[in-house]
Amino acid sequence: MSGQAGSLPRYVGAIDQGTTSTRFMVFDHAGAVVARHQLEHQQILPRAGWVEHNPVEIWERTSAVVQTALGRAGLGAEDLAAIGITNQRETTIVWDRHTGRPLHNAIVWQDTRTDAIAAQLERDGHADLIRRRSGLTPAPYFSGGKLRWLLEHVAGLRERAEAGDVLFGTPDTWVLWNLTGGTDGGVHATDVTNASRTMLMDLETLDWDTELLELFEVPRAMLPTIRESSAVEPYGFTRRNGPFGGEVPITGILGDQQAATVGQVCFEPGEAKNTYGTGNFMLLNTGTEIVRSAAGLLTTPAYRFGDDPCVYALEGSIAVTGSAVQWLRDQLGIISGAAESEALARQVEDNGGVYFVPAFSGLFAPYWRSDARGAIVGLSRFNTNAHLARATLEAICYQSRDVVEAMTADSGVRLETLKVDGGVTLNDLCMQIQADVLGVDVSRPEVAETTALGAAYAAGLSVGYWSDVDELRQHWREDARWSPRWSSDQREEGYVQWKKAVQRTLDWVEV
Fold it and tell me: What is the pLDDT of residues 58-107, one digit of tens each?
């Protein structure tokens, strides 16, 4: 950690490569947004349960949002002290080291094609080893199974990977490699938070685990170097012929949910945040202690700043929340935009007995049931599209309660206030329902884009743009707060019905 804020350029940039879009944001020293641009990319759905992205399109979108944001604000590379990268975590990309060409579409974290691989690992008795070493449960969610699937199904890939001609990475690694030169000396690296989502990294050593690599039959030669989240030395520098038009140090990398944890300044054990995006992701800081979950949560690095010890978290990952609202819009056509879900749901006082469990990709935490599929239950002729809209918002909130209950069981810490961020938090009704379902206050910060902000924080800490985490805490400001309105009886009755609805989704597909 070097340098003083006064002697550095004025701003820090952050690339946020997400599931549905990529954005670039520029922040000032107070953490305020001074420039931004965002572009969506295509969701490729080859068959039921399969979700892919085009890595070339992702890189093109990344370049475009950087150039547009900087151009509109009249900024250049010389105005940026550093750049951070944050990303959708488990999405798996393989590409040719020599040409830079992807060898398959990216397999997205939501994809369920590796159900059989995960189930076989369980049946063969490997689950305990995977949980103990990686902190994860065998599930199609994580990168290791997706990488094994690619090695088995793309002709010649395994042989080329063993020869060192093929590189693997999550989107942070893909973006970093391209920003730093690609085939001309591109840096092939990731950070501990992204590496931890592969099922291939040892939580204690923070390095690739030989036994897990053998279990998944993954050649070590294709894996990126694992680095700290806030770099002691830059991962690399942007190229003059790239989207930044000059050399800027890339000094921060965090998976999106860990980045949001940093952006929400959850630096003390017991502090938690919940991000509402395509899915929901709740993280509880457990400090430098590795807490093993007995209630269906994941153990994961929260961040590692410089040479300091790694800080860990318990995580509850929920596959489908905001994307359930997108489903109402894109597949059912009952709303024309996400914002309309709130207006439609406000037309009714309650859910009218309807519960919607959006287990489109199975159920993640705390159930980990890849055999589950989505269900709408409790329907009668009385119900309308407004009841379904309301049930969709309630599903987001009930799934979050499932995770909170598991966190309380694992940690013994009872949540007092839930810090929230992400696109769905702009839905005031949904956040009120969340407070009602949990029975605790829900707090949204002024800067809603905490994922990008967390990546900027990690990058800025590395170069001394911000001095320490105490300085970051001073920038956090509350924008809105919701307090519970339901009675305790109403809350518990609703949760009992929700649990019944979840049971109806199980054992639907064979794995």
Answer: 999 999 999 999 999 999 999 999 999 999 999 999 999 999 999 999 99
CA neighbor of 291 nearest in space, from 314, 258, 316, 261 = 314
Mean pLDDT of 202-225: 97
- Taking only the tens place, the pLDDT of each residue in 50-62 is 999 999 999 999 9
Sequential DSSP letters for 496-507: HHHHHHHHTTTT
Please tell me the pTM assigned to this model.
0.88
CB 77 within 8 A of CB 245: yes
Helices (H), 143-243: 143-153, 157-162, 171-179, 192-195, 210-216
- Give the tens place of pLDDT for each residue, 168-191: 999 999 999 999 999 999 999 999
Phi, psi dihedral angles at 82 (to 5 degrees) = -170, 170
Describe the crossing of helices 115-123 and 143-153 by its angle, rounded to 10 degrees. 110
- Nearest by Cα to 405 from 366, 354, 451, 353: 366
**3-state SS, residue 11:** strand
Residues counted in the chain: 511
Give the bridge partners for 372, in sequence order.
none
